Amino acid sequence: MTRRVDLRSDTLTQPTAAMREAMAAAPVGDDGYGEDPTVNALEARFAQFVGKDAAMFVPSGVMANQIALRILAAPGDLLVAGRTQHLVGFEMGAAARNAGVQFATVDDRRGTLTLSDVLEVIDAEDDHQPHVGAVAVENTHMFAGGVPWDVEDLRRLRAAIGERPLHLDGARLFNAVVATGTSASDFAEPATTVMACLSKGLCAPVGSLLAASAPLIDRARIERKRLGGTMRQAGILAAAGLVALDTMVDRLQEDHDHAQQLAEMFAAAFPESGYDPDSCRTNIVAFNHPQARQIVEELANRGVEGSTVAPTRARFVTHVGVSDDDVDFVAGALSHFVPVTH
Ligand SMILES: Cc1ncc(COP(=O)(O)O)c(C=O)c1O
């Protein structure tokens, strides 16, 4: 078989043997009635991790984001978010379709939002412009290259927006935790709602969690039902999620180390991209290059799969399926590299 190193996404990870065992043995019930003990345990564990009253298990990160928007903002409201955040650019317009909100997007090239940009949108309410229902941030920020927030910046943002709700898309929250040493509850404290995915670097097959105050999670359960996201004997899935939270967080450091090695290789192979390998702090290598698509195509021909997240932006993601040997293999694929031109 020809060798292949798959760096398209950390969503490609497979459930571990311990997860499959836990899934087989999980006590289950009807979660629509709140009677699945394994789901209840997972929700309680996550709520505790992020220091919120309550949490809710959902099938996907997109659904968690969408439910958050529906409980935080009213149709017609503005949602302030970074231009390249997942819920702006990668959810197929779901925010408009599901929550009826419109975006006021601000620059997020470095992964974080600038206070003055956010406040400018809020101030414009006084000039006959739409009400800002909520602000959303992403930690780590995927498009920017897995950039974690500094918790002090999040706290400043919280203070600046006053009573307005703040949603934290923490699809890779635990990568941010491992990279910064900031706890999940410290990251979550400034946020009104926080979501995290179990099915990315943590290797669970399915599932994300949304946490908030108890009254907000009561409302979130109604929105989950409206979206068709209420599951039944979902403890089978939640069992893998518990293993993910309990045993898979610390090992993310290995993914970050591999990404750092790859970042240095890509920066050296494509100096014209201006990519700074030190900007790689977690498990995502992402850089701009006019020939990004050709680079991805040519590397795939050499057995290294990556992707583009915009026509001129290439992305390579590390995960548990990437070994030291695989990193060496990428080094080989990058040597004497000349992207094909079309
Ligand atoms: C930052 C971010 N938010 C949300 C999601 C959505 O997660 P899911 O694929 O589970 O719907 C992703 C998925 O890649 C993501 O990267």
Shape call: globular
Could you tell me the CATH topology label of the largest domain: Aspartate Aminotransferase, domain 2
- The helix tally amounts to 14
At the fourth level of CATH, the homologous superfamily of the largest domain is: Type I PLP-dependent aspartate aminotransferase-like (Major domain)
**Largest beta-sheet characterization:** 7 strands, mixed
How many domains?
2
Structural class: alpha/beta
**Ligand types:** pyridoxal-5'-phosphate
Please characterize this protein's 3D structure.
- This protein is α/β, with parallel strands linked by helices and 342 residues long.
- It has two domains: 5-12 and 251-334, Aspartate Aminotransferase, domain 1 (Alpha-Beta Complex); 17-247, 3-Layer(aba) Sandwich (Aspartate Aminotransferase, domain 2), CATH 3.40.640.10.
- Helix content is 42%, strand content 16%.
- The chain is built from 14 helices and twelve strands.
- Strands 2-8-7-6-5-3-4 form a seven-stranded mixed beta sheet, with helices on both faces. A three-stranded antiparallel beta sheet has the order 9-12-11.
- It is globular.
- It binds pyridoxal-5'-phosphate (PLP).
- Pyridoxal-5'-phosphate (PLP) binds at residues 60-62, 65, 86, 138, 142, 169, 171, 197, 199, 208.
